[in-house]
Write a structure and sequence with these properties.
CATH superfamily of the largest domain: Type I PLP-dependent aspartate aminotransferase-like (Major domain)
Number of domains: 2
Number of strands: 12
Order of helices and strands: HEHHEHHEHEHEHEHEEHHHEEHHEEHH
Strand order of the largest sheet: 2-8-7-6-5-3-4
Distance between the termini: 33 Å
Strand content: 15-25%
Shape: globular
Structural class: alpha/beta
CATH topology of the largest domain: Aspartate Aminotransferase, domain 2
CATH class of the largest domain: Alpha Beta
Number of helices: 16
CATH architecture of the largest domain: 3-Layer(aba) Sandwich
Bound molecules: pyridoxal-5'-phosphate
């Protein structure tokens, strides 16, 4: 049963999402297979341990791992994977956390990997009771720095694969794993947004974590895959610090269905559709005065291309951030990818466009440019002012 009017009923605006899969926008469009599975399991009682076993099989098959488990989110998966490395399958230790007495209590991570995807990632480490042991500098880390940090107190090492990290100068995953394994330290990879479900385990990771609600189009959830013993210890955190972040039967069934649907999806056809959208955007925007567009590939090699839109505000009379902010207003907000706003550019991501939306986006874009060109809108907010206003808005919720 679908409710086409639910946004209207709730008084929410329909979004044209050209930014990607963002938690603040409700992550992704769930695939129909996931929606059906969630509705189907809803009215039933299930033996949760058995359901989790089925999920383990589905995840193991998709990732070539020994086992897998479903968590409430990637963030939860990171915290529970770290807890697993501290406690093993010892139920006493599992209940003892976040008191770390008698356990290894350091997680090694490269400074350039300390990202913020809605909150600072180090909080996922600290929530277990562990301390963060940083190595390297913001833009560079060296193998001797990793080797120096590893020791008898190291519970795990965390490696982040993401466009948010420092792009250059970081240690490669294979050399990172080799150094950690030489000291018997397990490596946990945060691959929340990565399409390749096998590469990181194949490169040596002991545990890898994916988001269920990004490219997979599942419900809010995380997938942890890897070595059976560590997966078991991750699952057992449901009887410890995992309880406040538990995942329900509906999300487990939903993400299993999404994972299976991902395996059957016609990826070529989807790529072709995205390419057609990019071409349309490129051809329409490139002749506009003060706008310079180019196709940009994904920084972590996911098979996605986006349109990079550079704004020359001396010609457009509107800055990139002001344009992004105006596009996000009105009855059909267009949300662009804001990663490069500070450098006078933004990106348009085709992968979440519903039919008809790429054209509406272009209309809104041209309209806003025309308004900026013909009206004297007065002095603009600076980038810093916009960020301050957004922060003030956040802390005044629910007003
Ligand atoms: C999105 C993201 C997360 C958070 O994923 P959730 O499943 O929403 O918790 C963590 N790490 C990276 C690199 C991400 O991109």
């Amino acid at each position: 049963m679908t409710k086409p009017d639910i946004l209207n009923e709730l008084g929410l605006r329909p979004i044209i999402n050209a930014s990607g899969t963002m938690t603040t926008l409700g992550a992704s469009m769930m695939v129909p297979e996931a929606v059906e599975a969630m509705a189907a399991i809803g009215p039933h009682f299930v033996e949760m341990g058995e359901l989790h076993k089925q999920a383990s099989r589905v995840i193991a098959k998709a990732t070539d791992a020994q086992a897998g488990t479903v968590t409430a989110s990637t963030a939860a998966g990171i915290a529970l994977a770290i807890a697993a490395c501290m406690t093993g399958s010892d139920l006493g230790r599992i209940e003892q956390l976040p008191d770390i007495t008698g356990m290894k209590d350091e997680v090694v991570v490269q400074l350039g990997h300390l990202v913020d995807f809605g909150h600072p990632i180090d909080q996922d480490i600290r929530i277990t009771g562990c301390r963060v042991r940083l190595i390297g500098q913001a833009t560079e880390s060296k193998i001797h720095q990793l080797e120096h940090a590893l020791g008898p107190n190291t519970a795990a090492a965390l490696y982040v694969v993401s466009h948010h990290t420092a792009r250059f100068g970081m240690l490669g995953l294979k050399e990172f794993c080799d150094a950690c394994h030489a000291q018997h330290v397990p490596v946990i990879v945060d691959a929340a947004s990565e399409y390749d479900l096998k590469k990181f385990l194949a490169d040596g990771a002991d545990l890898v974590i994916y988001s269920g609600h990004k490219f997979l189009g599942g419900p809010t959830s995380g997938l942890v895959a890897g070595k059976k013993e560590l997966i078991r210890a991750t699952y057992l955190q449901n009887h410890g610090i995992g309880r406040p972040m538990k995942v329900g039967k509906e999300s487990i069934c939903g993400v299993m269905a999404a994972l299976e649907a991902w395996g059957r999806r016609d990826h070529e056809a989807i790529r072709a559709r995205e390419k057609a959208i990019l071409d349309l955007w490129f051809d329409t925007l490139s002749p506009l005065t003060g706008i310079e567009v180019r196709i940009s590939s994904d920084p972590t090699d996911n098979p996605i291309e986006r349109l990079h839109v550079q704004i020359d505000e001396t010609q457009t009379r509107i800055s990139a951030w002001e344009l992004a902010s105006r596009l996000a207003q009105g009855p059909t907000p267009v949300i662009v990818r804001g990663e490069y706003l500070g450098s006078g550019a933004f990106e348009l991501d085709p992968c979440n466009q519903k039919d008809g939306q790429p054209e509406v986006l272009l209309e809104r874009f041209k309209q806003e440019l025309e308004t900026a060109r013909t009206q004297n809108a007065g002095p603009e907010e600076s980038f810093a002012e916009i960020r301050r206003r957004q922060a003030a808005q956040l802390v005044s919720w629910p007003d």
